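hey so i finally got around to running the thing on that chain from the lab meeting. sorry it took forever, my laptop kept dying and i had to restart like 3 times. anyway pasting the input first so we r on the same page abt which one it is
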Amino acid sequence: MRLRSLPLAAASATALLAAGALPAGASGRPAAPASAQEGSVSAADLLAKVKSCSQISNGTYKTDDETSATIPVCGKNGAVFWKADMDIDCDGQRTTNCNEDRDPWYQDDTAFHQSDGKPLKAETLPYVVVPSSSGIWDYSSAGIKGGGVVAVLYGDKVEYAVVGDTGPTKIIGEASYATAEALGIDPDPETGGTDSGVTYILFKNSKVSPIESHSAAVSLGDQLAKQFLADN
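ok and heres what got predicted. didnt touch it at all, straight out
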């Protein structure tokens, strides 16, 4: 988990603009697909159910260390959600793109672990970071647990992830390298991410087993998304 300051956010915007001038794949990563939808439920259908917020948090969160606190956690039948930015979490097992050399904020552990006891792999596993429990909001008392399913929406894209790590008590809006990459967001842990436009829908009392199985997250996520549409 990292705290991205406003100067870094500006650098991110500059990097994104510069990347836009490069040919597809010039960054060394495959070009993201124009559209990506995991499961059978569209982003539009999910977004239609989260247009209004019934706030369940006792206060609001910042998206970065130096921004104002404006983001509430909202409640729906069977889920909680928030709309925020996306900072990139590269914590967990060391991989080619997630390590001390690539990420100034790198930590070699995650709050929740694989079935073999090892930390998660941010580069290959889509996961979301939740704020650590505080007076603002306690994720566990809301039915959110490690390995729980999250539908992450960006534009017309749907990516299913798991709750994989916890972050600062006052900041919200962060997901793993793999989550960002799947959604077409620059996953660079230092300069990547996006400043807005990401919706996180966390399904209550859900748990993917094993937590490191992305296919299991997609399968369960699709079921829960259909139920979410039916119940809201």
